[in-house]
Amino acid sequence: MTTATVIGSGPNGLAAALTLALAGVEVTVLEAAATIGGGTRSHEAIVPGLLHDHCSAIHPMAVGSPLFRRAGLERHGLRWAWPEFDCVHPLDDGSAAVLHRSVAATATGLGADERLWRRLFEGPVAVYDELGGDIMRPLLRIPRHPFRLARFGIPATAPATLLARAFRTDRGRALFGGVAAHAFHPLDRPLSASIGLGILTSGHRYGWAVAVGGSQRIADALAAALAEHGGTIETGVRVRSAAELPPSDLTIWDVAPTALADILGDRLPPRIAAAYRRFRYGPGAFKVDFAVEGGVPWVAAAARRAGTVHLGGSFAEIAAGERDIHAGRMPIRPFVLVGQQYLADPQRSVGAVHPVWAYAHVPHGYTGDATEAIIAQIERFAPGFRDRVVGWSHRSPGGFADDNPNFVGGNIMTGAKDIPQLLFGPRKTLQPYDIGLPGHYLCSAATPPGPGAHGMCGVNAAERALRRLGGHLPHRESATSTTRSTS
After folding, report:
1. Topology of domain 3-42+53-78+212-278+414-476, CATH
2. 3-state SS record for 146-170
3. SUPFAM superfamilies this protein is in (predicted)?
4. Rounded to two decimals, what is the model's pTM?
């Protein structure tokens, strides 16, 4: 029987392991931490029973993951829940832009920008189940649906600042800008619109869902499915060198490219090792978990019903903040994302005390304390918030990196999402999962399609390994194939 070892149990490592197991490969996953999941872990914090997500919390890209649907993860306890509103972006005048799952409802709420929003999203959302098979694979390849991908891809190639000029309202610009800022990248750079458009399109198709019981349930469901197909997971096992690897036919690495170069050393071809050591990491995140009595007193009523709230004011303010952090400067008013997952999943709360998840965009490796800046941004749109906080805990960029080595300098995106790394991954090649060592493949979020709990970096790497091995996938279909949902 073919054997495989997967290093790392984040969603990509687990997805790679499951894809291999479904093809009949005997798989072992080695995880350095005591708990599986990488960025999809959850934990109790501040108040006993109060449940907080460690990093990844809102999952517009994961709900429609082809592997998740194909593997039937709901049989293993994974359930999704949706807030009333996906995302709200409040402005200083008390108004707010509201992102609904419905394209029509969102567009209607944007007034003069209704037509533009419909033009950007109605077509791609209608064919997303087919389009997603191309979006979730490397961009530099022959697409399965070239005309549909081109219709989506033309605006995605633009700088977000250029696309923002097409909006006529502050609300429309700010709503788009807040989602585009998820890339941790200057909004005036080419392709900076792509991640925002991708998140918005998948969100309009599947909604900005949370995993019931915490994001840890995603990892747990993948692990249960893996076990069902004979795979095993060993925690507390850190691989520091090639000599520590068990013998196997395939090895899939869910690690940062720089870490892979350090682990494998001179076993890698010199040009590939050099490319991995040159891999660029982007700005970091500074996260604060709050325990809040009675919830956040947002001025904009819609924000009290939203799973995610973006705090950055106008598009211009968001763009300035992203430029600052990219240049290594800490903004006075950083862009802040607030998660209110308990609105969709009430079991995360303890009575009237609710878990509020928040992080600010900060410079790479930032060593200061951004807690007060995050509180100030929330207070700006929710006066009296500070008085409702009964406790908090924070995680700095260094804390993120210590807890998850893939998050170098607090960069939870596992790499800067500039043009070369968006197009190619960690090195310039048409095969981003190959590392130049027979039987070894890279599957972390440094590879296409990039960050998110969707697991598709792992699926793509595992499929590449199976093709090179001459293996096959069950039912003669690819794990990235999709079928139109009737939901």
Report:
1. FAD/NAD(P)-binding domain (3.50.50)
2. HHHHHHHHHHHCCCHHHHHCCCCCH
3. FAD/NAD(P)-binding domain
4. 0.92
